[in-house]
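Ticket #4471: structure export looks truncated?
Reporter: QA, pipeline team
Priority: medium

Steps to reproduce: submit the single chain below to the structure queue and open the exported record.
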Amino acid sequence: MVSSSQPTKKKFLNSINYFRGIAIILIVLGHCQGLGGLDTSTNAEKLLYSLISNGSVYFVFISGFLYNHIFYPRFEYKKFMKKKTQFVLLPYLLCSLVPILLTVFVGDGGKFLPGSLREQPFLAIIWFLVTGRINFAYWYIPMVMILFAISPVINWIIRSNKILLAIAFLLPISLIVHRPSDGINPLHSVVYFLPVYLIGIWSSINNKKIYAYLKDNKKKAVIVLLAIALSLIQIFVLHSSGNFTKEFWSITVPDVNLLQKILLCFLLMSILDHYENTDISSMKKTAETSFAIYFIHPFLINAIASIAKKLNLDLSYQGNFFTLVLATFLIVIISMAIAYGIKAVLKKNSRYLIGW
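Actual output as written to the record:
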């Protein structure tokens, strides 16, 4: 327990809530790239793809921000982990269970399952649960549960006022190790995302200073230019677009996309602060259902891909930014509708299934 006193309840932050809504839209946007998205053979669309990829950084940044804002002042490890188990881990287990069982006992185990586990169904199930690799999005939950589990270490860093020192030490490591190949190593993901989580915490502690510093639109414009410059470096110097992924110990080029996303976190944070006292109903609804959208949208994308395969439709077709935005809009809206339907049936118990 961080403090024996009971601090007053922290103010609900509309701006960070809106940020959460935008973050889930950007994450779905990146995932919809496979549904006739951008033709990344052109430099212009490579630039755009670089800017929209790696959206998970936003989610981790927001998680760190809200951890400091909500949980740290009245932290109780047992209570905190119980809540995260109920409303993060349990929905993950329930949403993963049927796909895992179908993949292990009906399908061929999928392309990511190690060959040594294909004849060992129990171990295969454990492997899928530990890695989250039953679909392209669920890797996030094993990673974030580890982040939650090491909260006492995070609290020590906060109390000792060593956040910037920890970030300065960890961020270069993230730039070197990149995201794990195929997202199947949660410990690797923790190493990559931990400094982002700490940056979110630091931003929560120093939010007034950040808002004051970035109040000048010229400074916001500089961030935009730096983000674009990092994208151009990624494309023309490092010859890459999208996420940087590799095995942990291999050494390649620095992950400049991570730096770009951290800059954009500050940009979005400062822009949305202007709407702190503005009621944006559509963004509130998107934000409050964001975790449900996260759990539901992979099923929709996989269903579309499966239907297209059965109908012999070629999803290798590359569209443009309009088709990508349209696909994202439809996936988000349908996911929200399903979430509201589940909540209408299960009421409060829906939190155990879809996190909302």
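Status: closed, not a bug. The export was complete when the record was re-opened. Leaving a note from the reviewer for reference: Strands lie at 179-180, 245-246.
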